[in-house]
Amino acid sequence: MTYDLIIRNARLRNRKAHVDIGIAKGVIRKIAKKISGRAHKVIRADGNLVTESFVNPHLHLDKVYTLEMQDSAALEAYHGGTMGAAMKAIEQAARVKETYDERWILQNVRKALRLAAGFGNTHIRAFADVDSKAKLVGVKALLKARDEFKGIVEVQVVAFPQDGVVREPGTSDLIREAMDLGADVVGGIPWIEYTVEDERRHIDEMLEIAKAYDADVSMLVDDAGDPGLRTLETLAVRTIEEGRIGRCLAHHARAMSMYPEPYFRKVCALLKKADMGLITDPHTGPLHARAKELIAEGVLVALGQDDIADAYYPFGRNNMLEVGFLAVHMLWMTTFPEMETIYDMITVDAARSMNIPRFRIQTGSSAHLVVLDAASVYEALWTHRAPLQVVSHGSLVDLNSLPGSRSQRSPRSRRR
Asked: What is the CA 319 to chain-centroid distance, rounded?
């Protein structure tokens, strides 16, 4: 047959012998030692590692590159040793929304998505604040960027009530408006509410909206240094009760580091029953979820970038290999098998958490691939260099053709 693209002499994670990969109409059609046939394009991997592309299930995309618009007060509060002032940090960070404008947000978002494409990050779950200050400005900017980068970087837009639902009357209506505009996922942050009753109402209202729009849910839960927080448990229980199995995703759950052991085991059981994955971003705060123990218990865990140069984290490049490199240290997963697990957490497991179908290097799967500048997962994490080639939806990504790319050099060009 005639292929759109053939990758030759590729090293795969699960095979000793090098292979060719044939791609047509966005799908992996054949994997073999040698593929004969014509191809419109041929990539020579030269024995480098070829894997699934990278996936980022958690990024506050409307806030990227806003750190210099504020002082460091929010960073100081959020990065305190016990995260006891996490709520105060969120309130301080909200000041940037007083100047929200779709035009500068869109410029920042394009910059971040160009970096994502260059680093082989082809799928992102992107949060946009929705509240009395942000209104729908961030959502509209992300929806425009989603359309611009379609087929290159797939963006799932999350309508996110950052400042609460009960605390911010009218937010539920704004979330519905965001879903009407085309947002993909319903967000939530129930722990930000003042009472347990209000936390439950926050969760219930967001689940109700998600059900009405047949949408997935992403909620930031138990994200402070308080072992008494129980919003992860409540979300899991309500997910089971509402029959939304596999449709809800939890984020952060940093208070888990302080959970009593018997309670932690109960939460693990609930997460498995709800088929609920958890996204952890250990580089963005002093506390983090108990990732290794969750994985050992059979819970789906993936890594996210979370922030890029905003009030919560001063760095970030949408480079999930860099996130994985940091997680190796933060989670102390330094053995070779553990590094393979880390790599799953930024590729196939991250894709599972976002309900992305057919995300594997196997025949019949969608062709989202990277040709790495490395021969092994160990080397890839160690150097966290940009891929040599990126394939998204079966097509080779041309970094020079991305929106706004004329004024933005690719990660590879900066490395030369």
From this structure: 11
d(CA 183, CA 177): 9
| DSSP output for 261-273 | HHHHHHHHHHHHH
Q: Is there a single domain that holds both residue 27 and residue 103?
A: no
Task: Residue 42: give its domain's CATH number.
Answer: 2.30.40.10
Structure confidence at residue 74 (pLDDT):
82
Is residue 153 located within the same domain as residue 21? no
Which residues of the chain are under the pLDDT cut of 70?
Answer: 406-416
CB atoms within 10 A of CB 12: 16
267-295: burial string, b at 16+ Cβ within 10 Å, e else:
bbebbeebbbbbbbbbbbbebbbbbeebb
- Cβ atoms of residues 76 and 312 within 8 Å: no
| 387-415 b/e (C-beta count within 10 Å ≥ 16 → b) | bbbbbbbbbbbebeebbebeebebbeeee
Number of compact structural domains in the chain: 2
349 and 368 in a single domain? The answer is no
What digits encode the pLDDT tens for the residues 220-237? 999 999 999 999 999 999
Assess whether 167 and 243 both reside in one domain.
Answer: yes
Helix (H) or strand (E) holding 294: helix 291-296
DSSP β-bridge partners for residue 216:
185
Q: What is the C-alpha R_g of the chain?
A: 21
Name which of 218, 298, 299, 287 is nearest 259 in CA terms.
287
Residue 410 is assigned to a structural domain of this protein: no
pLDDT in tens, 308-332: 999 999 999 999 999 999 999 999 9
pLDDT tens readout for residues 10-40: 999 988 899 999 999 999 999 999 999 899 9
Confidence at residue 406, expressed as pLDDT on a 0 to 100 scale: 64
* Per-residue model confidence (pLDDT) at position 415: 38
Is 304 among the domain residues?
yes
Sign of the CA dihedral running 161, 268, 57, 88: positive
